[in-house]
Amino acid sequence: MKIEFWFEFASTYSYPAAMRIEALAASRDVQVAWRPFLLGPIFQQQGWNDSPFNIYQAKGRYMWRDMERVCERQDIPLRKPSTFPRNGLLPARVVCAHSEQAWVPGFVRAIYRANFADDADISSPAIVEQCLTALGQDAATILATSQTPTAKDKLKAQTAEAMERGVFGAPSFVVGDELFWGNDRLEDALAWARR
Amino acid sequence: MKIEFWFEFASTYSYPAAMRIEALAASRDVQVAWRPFLLGPIFQQQGWNDSPFNIYQAKGRYMWRDMERVCERQDIPLRKPSTFPRNGLLPARVVCAHSEQAWVPGFVRAIYRANFADDADISSPAIVEQCLTALGQDAATILATSQTPTAKDKLKAQTAEAMERGVFGAPSFVVGDELFWGNDRLEDALAWARR
Fold first, then answer.
1. N or C: fewer beta carbons within 10 Å in chain A?
2. Active site located where (chains A, B) (predicted)?
3. Which residue in chain A has the smallest CA separation from B42?
4. CATH number of the domain residue A183 falls in
5. Inter-chain contact B62–A181, Cβ cutoff 8 Å?
6. Do B188 and A69 count as a contact with CB atoms less than 8 A apart?
7. Nearest chain B CA: its distance from A143 CA (Å)
8. The pLDDT of residue B47
């Protein structure tokens, strides 16, 4: 049984999902495929050149308050990033190029923590390096293999695949052809994987 | 303890919320204030002249599938309305003009059932009349008092109040100044009301 976790490092509600998915899926014997993608091209198709939470201000105000409640309940820290949305291209390339590596789940959580708890610039190679080093990884080699033309194309292709499969926001969970959107649907998606 | 239930008869996710809120709130000793409003003016402010589920097609496709799952779990029927969104102005005026009446919760459910289970035209006086009559009410009198200038202004004012208080979609639940958006947040809103 497998669940695909489609996430974007800039996405607010992907943060609580990323922090809990590995343990929750393991407790239900479901395997997680970590599938980063970019929301930018998907939002552009919808006519947005910014996060909808910035474009639609009442919705944005609500989202930040709701995130406070969600993170409080999940007991994870939240500091509103001074830049939103933050460019998550580099860490997304890192995950995309190394998706089968055992350090990936910990790296994903470290990047989300940097963005949404430490207000750090996750587009900076120094921050990404720091997250990799803290996990005992060879940051220089990983950063190099994550920025080859092949690695860049892989993330582009993965974003195109997301669109083709109906993903329109993050986080999304896919089980076979069944799509679930939003952190609130993680439990339902896991239940679907166990059917 | 009181919860305000802000709903729009055209709104898909307001349907499962409307079908369960009265019993759920009662079980937790929370009173419900039934507050219909119109999404049209709010969406227009955001630059939309249609439901976002029609404008953003991937999101719309997902929503109808998600609604199937939500309604199946809640064991309520769902038939995709042949017209979406349906104009809910008339029944909204009826509720707004009679919000303290004991028949209102049953009427709200009857209109939602008409729209989302029976594919009936809820903008038609005949359908609204039928829902009122089935509840043992004097439909002609209620329809008349729901369409006076005072009644029309009351719904306009209530829609303006929704906007002022940060409501940007339906269903929304308000407890004091705390806003909760979406059928998924009903339990949280009720818990907030009991704090």
1. C
2. 11 (nucleophile)
3. A58
4. 3.40.30.10
5. yes
6. yes
7. 34
8. 87
Distance separating alpha carbons of residues B185 and B172, to the nearest angstrom: 8
- Give me the domain span that covers residue B140: 2-193
Two tokens, residue B149 = 């200038």
Q: Tokens at residue B50, please? A: 């249609």
Q: What share of chain B is helix, strand, coil (3-state, %, to 5)?
A: 55, 10, 35
Residue B171: is the preceding peptide bond cis (ω within 30°)? yes
Q: Where are the beta strands (DSSP E) in chain A?
A: 2-7, 31-36, 172-175, 178-181
**Residues 6 or more apart whose Cβ sits within 8 Å of residue B150:** B97
Per-residue pLDDT of A132-189, as tens digits, reads: 999 999 999 999 999 999 999 999 999 999 999 999 999 999 999 999 999 999 999 9
Contact B82, B117 (CB under 8 A): no
Q: How far apart are CA A79 and CA A63, in angstroms?
A: 13
Distance between CA atoms of A52 and A57, rounded to whole angstroms?
Answer: 8
pLDDT in tens, B16-58: 999 999 999 999 999 999 999 999 999 998 889 999 999 999 9
**Chain B interface disruption, residue of A13, A39, A44, A59, most B CBs within 10 A:** A59
Question: In the predicted model, what is the mean pLDDT of residues B85-113?
Answer: 97
Q: How many domains does chain B have?
A: 1
String of DSSP letters for B133-151: HHTT--HHHHHHHTSSHHH
* Geometric angle at alpha carbon B189, from B183 and B191, rounded to 5°: 130
Please give the structure tokens belonging to residue A31: 């395997």
Give me the percent of chain B exceeding a pLDDT of 90.
96
Residue A66: which residues within 8 A CB-CB, separation 6 or more?
B180, B181, B185
Q: Could you say which of B59, B65, B163 has the minimum Cβ distance to residue A168?
A: B59
Residue from the list A62, A168, A181 with its beta carbon closest to the beta carbon of B179: A62
